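re: ur question from earlier - yeah i can do the single chain one, its not a big deal. heres the input i used so u can compare w yours
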Amino acid sequence: MRQTLRTLQIAFTYIGTIVGAGFATGQEILQFFTQYGRWAVLTILLSMGFFIWLGTKMMILARRIGAESYEDFNRHLFGRNTGSVISLFTLVILIGVNSIMLAGAGAIFQEHLGLHYQTGLILTVIGSYLLLKRGISGILQMNSIVVPLMMTLSLLIIFNTVGHPGAHRFMTLVTERSPVVAWMSPFLYTAFNLGMAQAVLVPMARQSDSERPLIWGGIIGGLGIGFMLMAAHYAMSAHMPGILQFEIPMGSIAFGLGPLVSLVYLLLIFLEIFSTFVADIYGVTLQLEQRTRFSRSAITPVVMLLCYIFSQFGFSSLLSLFYPMFGALSLVWAIKLILTPSQPPGASDGPEEAASHSTSSVKDVVPGPARK
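and the output i got, formated as tokens:
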């Protein structure tokens, strides 16, 4: 039972780290999938496969090399010097992405709650600072509550869309976009999100007692991400092209479910933004603590202040500018992860690990009968 709970915590944290501002609001899914029409279903399935494979491999490898932060992980992938440069670049990306998270919180408060944009930013910063005092355990517990609720509401949106006149469009939606660009999208999307998720998944994997919860957590987490991608695409396709005008398209769909459900959905969108923001800030401060030797309590307010300043530029404009660019640059990182063996040179499993891990091949990370 304890191992099962740990597996679910890992899976929910994986999902919660990926499902951030752009994902939960729908903007990210529009950018990378829905706008490509009928190709989106296949590209979502391909992206889900990458999340299962590479997310699981990253956590297993991080635990085997004893990586305490994503800088340790990148040094293993690229070597000490290049890895440090990649980590510094990742740090810049994370600060930019967290600025988008804050901007998304501000957009929710302004567009759907009728409150000031700055109110959403300030409440997110204060709440994140308080939760970060609990460390990785606070992140695990928060995602264990938020993610199941988010998936339940995704089911409600699917059921509500079934009777919509445009429910069939997710398979037939016409697009003028190039098929080549459409098929590049899942590679860019997965690379970008996994490059960001390493800030949390690497230290989380380091604290796991064994690899089996990481394996199943990666599989369940990847399936959950794929399900939520498909649910959002299915719902938004039925409302195309009018839904393109909304800053938070999934929020506009939620209003069709009634005032209570829509309010709960907006709250969960905010909590998903909040959970990803907290997780990324945790990873950034952990890496900066290694680089500078300043305490996390001193680093966290400085990082949050930077994110607050950059979040003043708006939400969708930042999303459309930074996400594709960061995804392309993260593609190099993902390719390197694919090419790196799961088993570090000279490492060997102990008796406990050998019972559940008979090989180090990437394709064998999925548990089978031989692992019983």
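The two ends are 16 Å apart (CA to CA). not sure if urs matches, ping me
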